[in-house]
C-alpha cells in the first residue's frame, strides 16, 4: 500500500467518526478537521487550512458565537497547559438542547512554545437527557417518600420530622399546639359509596382544612381519615379559636360531582411549650382529646388538660 493510499484510508476513517476532531497550530490556525465538523459549521467544500476562528467569524456569521467560544476555550486550554474538558450546549436543529463534551489538549515544543492544539468533541446529549431523567426520577421518589400520594400533603413520616425539627430549634418557652382530627362517619361513607368517593372526600377535606389554616401552620396525613395540624408560636386561646372555626367549616355539606354528603369532623387539641412536650406526647394527648370529642357527640373540639 502506497503512502497516498494510506492517507486516503486515514481520512476516510476520521470522516466516518461521529465526533469532532480538530487540530490547530500554536497560532490558532486550522490544520485538520473531519467531515462532521465541516457539516456542523456549514463549511463543506471550504478550504479551511490556515484559517483562524477570528477569520471564520466574519466568513460564517451564523456560527459567530461558536467561533468566539472556540477562541475563548482554546486560550483556556493553552493557559492550563494540560488536557482541558469543556461542556458546550446549544440549540440543535431538532429543537432540543444539544450538549457536547470537548477535550482540548495543548502540545508544546522543546522550548515550551505553543505547537499544536488537538480537540475532540463528542455529543453527550443522550447521556445528559438520561442523567436528567434519573435526577427527576430520584426527586419524584424522594417526594413520594415524604408526601401522601392521595392528597399531596406531608405523610406521617414527613409531618413528624417537621414537628421534631421545629421543637428542636424553638425556644423552650415557645408555645405550640397540635390538632388531631378526622372525619366523622368516614367508614360508613366508604361502605355506602365506595372507596373512590371516600378518596375524593379526603382530597376535598384537605383543601377545606388548608383554606382555614395560617401560612405557617403544618398539615399532615397520619393515615386513613386521620390528620394532624401543628401550630407554631400559638397560645391555647388562639389554638382553640382556630379549631372552632375549622370544626364549623367542616360541618358544611360536601358536594363530590353528583353526590352530596353530610358529615362532620371532631378535633382534639394538645397545647404546651417546645421544651415541655415532644411530638409523641403531643399526639398522644391530642388523640385522647379527639376520643373525648367523639364520645361527647362528634362535631366538636376538645382541648386536652394541661
From TrEMBL:
Question: Which residue ranges does the record assign to the GGDEF domain?
Answer: 174-306
Do you know which Pfam families this protein is assigned to? GGDEF (PF00990), PAS_4 (PF08448)
Q: Which InterPro entries match?
A: DGC-Regulatory_Protein, GGDEF_dom, Nucleotide_cyclase, PAS, PAS-assoc_C, PAS-like_dom_sf, PAS_4, Rev_trsase/Diguanyl_cyclase
Keyword Cell cycle present in the record's keywords: the answer is no
Q: Which terms are listed as keywords in the entry?
A: Kinase, Transferase
Record-annotated PAC domain positions = 84-136
Q: Which domain of life is it from?
A: Bacteria
Q: Identify this protein by name.
A: GGDEF domain-containing protein
Amino acid at each position: 500500500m502506497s503512502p497516498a493510499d494510506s492517507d486516503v484510508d486515514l481520512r476516510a476513517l476520521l470522516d466516518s467518526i461521529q465526533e469532532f476532531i480538530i487540530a490547530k497550530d500554536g497560532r490558532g490556525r486550522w490544520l485538520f478537521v473531519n467531515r462532521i465538523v465541516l457539516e456542523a459549521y456549514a463549511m463543506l467544500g471550504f478550504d479551511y487550512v490556515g484559517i483562524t476562528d477570528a477569520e471564520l467569524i466574519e466568513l460564517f456569521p451564523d456560527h459567530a458565537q461558536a467561533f468566539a467560544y472556540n477562541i475563548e476555550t482554546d486560550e483556556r486550554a493553552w493557559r492550563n497547559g494540560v488536557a482541558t474538558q469543556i461542556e458546550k450546549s446549544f440549540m440543535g436543529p431538532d429543537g432540543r438542547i444539544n450538549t457536547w463534551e470537548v477535550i482540548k489538549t495543548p502540545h508544546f515544543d522543546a522550548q515550551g512554545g505553543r505547537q499544536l492544539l488537538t480537540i475532540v468533541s463528542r455529543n453527550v446529549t443522550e447521556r445528559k437527557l438520561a442523567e436528567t431523567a434519573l435526577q427527576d426520577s430520584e426527586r419524584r421518589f424522594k417526594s413520594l417518600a415524604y408526601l401522601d400520594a392521595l392528597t399531596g400533603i406531608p405523610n406521617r413520616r414527613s409531618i413528624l420530622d417537621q414537628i421534631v425539627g421545629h421543637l428542636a430549634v424553638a425556644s423552650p418557652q415557645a408555645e405550640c399546639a397540635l390538632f388531631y382530627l378526622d372525619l366523622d362517619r368516614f367508614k360508613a361513607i366508604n361502605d355506602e359509596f365506595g372507596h373512590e368517593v371516600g378518596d375524593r372526600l379526603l382530597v376535598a377535606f384537605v383543601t377545606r382544612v388548608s383554606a382555614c389554616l395560617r401560612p405557617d401552620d403544618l398539615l399532615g396525613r397520619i393515615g386513613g381519615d386521620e390528620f394532624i395540624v401543628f401550630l407554631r408560636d400559638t397560645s391555647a386561646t388562639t389554638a382553640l379559636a382556630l379549631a372552632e372555626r375549622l370544626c364549623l367549616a367542616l360541618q358544611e355539606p360536601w358536594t363530590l360531582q353528583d353526590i352530596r354528603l353530610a358529615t362532620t369532623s371532631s378535633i382534639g387539641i394538645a397545647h404546651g411549650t417546645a421544651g415541655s412536650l415532644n411530638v409523641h406526647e403531643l399526639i398522644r394527648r391530642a388523640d385522647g382529646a379527639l376520643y373525648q370529642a367523639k364520645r361527647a357527640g362528634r362535631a366538636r373540639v376538645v382541648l386536652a388538660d394541661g
